[in-house]
Amino acid sequence: MSVAKTIRIVAAVIRDGQGRVLLVRKRGAAVWQQPGGKRDADDRDDLHTLARELHEELGCVMQHEGARWLGRFSAPAANEPGHVVEAEVYEVTANGPFVAQAEIEGVCWVVPAMLGDLPIARLSREFILPLLVASPGNGS
Ligand SMILES: Nc1nc2c([nH]c(=O)n2[C@@H]2O[C@H](COP(=O)(O)OP(=O)(O)OP(=O)(O)O)[C@@H](O)[C@H]2O)c(=O)[nH]1
């Protein structure tokens, strides 16, 4: 029996004033997912990882104040067959503009209750976005 390998990441929920949530698409990937990524050896903590990843991917500046841990969620990894992604997920605010950079090819805003058939990674579609339908943000 093969055992799935685990990819540990820190992922961000960023909402705008209308309750829309920012998703990103990596270069060459088919699906949309939360911004974020793996910890680096010299990251101080999860929020440090997240601030670094958000700046690399989107050029934005994350605010550490007010960051809210939403939970730890796991799902089959979007781009690595045979792997499971395990994410510490935080809702954060960040100062835009949000511009795709580095390995990110696209940025979009979605309404969690109206995803239609947009291709979205399972971690987001099955766990993170449903949580946001149940708990709308301050701006919505
Ligand atoms: N960042 C992120 N990764 C996700 C999510 N859902 C999901 O399955 N993953 C998987 O976890 C992997 C994490 O890789 P990553 O590319 O974001 O991490 P990273 O920036 O540190 O990558 P690198 O070390 O290749 O530079 C993704 O390739 C993807 O397959 C998600 O919502 N956000």
From TrEMBL:
Keywords from the UniProt entry: DNA damage, DNA repair, DNA replication, Hydrolase, Magnesium, Metal-binding, Mutator protein
Record PANTHER family: 8-OXO-DGTP DIPHOSPHATASE (PTHR47707), NUDIX HYDROLASE FAMILY PROTEIN (PTHR47707:SF1)
EC number: 3.6.1.55
Native source organism of the sequence: Dyella telluris
Cofactor: Mg(2+)
MF terms (GO), sorted A to Z: 8-oxo-7,8-dihydrodeoxyguanosine triphosphate pyrophosphatase activity; 8-oxo-7,8-dihydroguanosine triphosphate pyrophosphatase activity; 8-oxo-dGDP phosphatase activity; 8-oxo-GDP phosphatase activity; metal ion binding
Catalytic activity as recorded in UniProt: 8-oxo-GTP + H2O = 8-oxo-GMP + diphosphate + H(+); 8-oxo-dGTP + H2O = 8-oxo-dGMP + diphosphate + H(+)
Keyword Methyltransferase: no
Enzyme class: hydrolase
GO biological process: DNA repair; DNA replication
InterPro entries according to UniProt: MutT-like (IPR047127), NUDIX_hydrolase-like_dom_sf (IPR015797), NUDIX_hydrolase_dom (IPR000086)
Superkingdom: Bacteria
Taxonomic path: Bacteria, Pseudomonadati, Pseudomonadota, Gammaproteobacteria, Lysobacterales
Assigned protein family: Belongs to the Nudix hydrolase family.
Protein name, entry field: 8-oxo-dGTP diphosphatase
Domain Nudix hydrolase: 5-133
